[in-house]
Amino acid sequence: MKILEFDHVSLAVDEFGDRSAPPVLLMAGATQSMDWWTPEFCEVLAAEGLYVVRYDQRDTGRSTTSPPGLPDYTDVDLATDPVRILDALGVDTAHLVGLSMGGGIAQYLGVHAAHRVRTLTLIESSPAGGDPGDLPAPEAAVGEAESALPGVGDWTDLAAVVHHRVEAERPYAGSRGFDEERFRAIATEEVGRSRNMESSLTNHFLVAGGTDTDPSAITAPALVIHSDTDPLFPLAHGEALAGMIPDATLLRVEGMGHEVPPPPVWDVVVPALVDHVRGEYGSTTAGVSSSPQ
């Protein structure tokens, strides 16, 4: 891991694979550090001949943090940090992979920094603007679970923070169920290396969603990966997104939740992502449903 220093922000990045290989930048969802793109997932992609970069967004991990409830940046700052990272690494153009809010950032860059984007892969994301029509709301259980989640009384109690982090992710599980052991391992890593978890779990929600980006203006090849059991953005969100982006491909994944693809679906997701980066996964596969066992 390295820390990239800019005028007013420090961003932590981690690299996997040969720097001469096609570059892939992974962008996490709101409140998530790079830890949710696990080293194992990054190494699988690197073994396929890709140069993989993951990073801590502002207020997560080892990157710059603001006081809880007082983010000193905007959604545009979050959306343009990937360009700063590419510049610092000497990468002219990259394949962008974004989960949820990270997918919104990818859409923004696909329109406003199109010359830096080779391809887009949008996972469990939703149209960041334009006219997608009426889209279904999150499942009621998500809101109920969020409302019932107790706060953290002492943010210096790392065990309590890890427990809170795990329980905060539980409502987003798909039909495959919640892998508590795996989520606890990721949360423990994240909490152990983060500067301020209270800021991490608070500040992104105060700035996200302010920039309207019409996906129909995206010109880069796009792969939309979406689960049929995402409780936050039901499948119709992914279908709408794929329908708005010209010539986009939709890969439906069975049983995944609102999450970075877990190991049980790597046999479906990884080949699709790698082929997309190589230009081999095109519109002929649109609408494919995966059935990982």
TrEMBL record:
GO biological process: glycerolipid catabolic process
Single GO molecular function: triacylglycerol lipase activity
Superkingdom of origin: Bacteria
Domain AB hydrolase-1: 22-260
Stated name of the protein: Pimeloyl-ACP methyl ester carboxylesterase
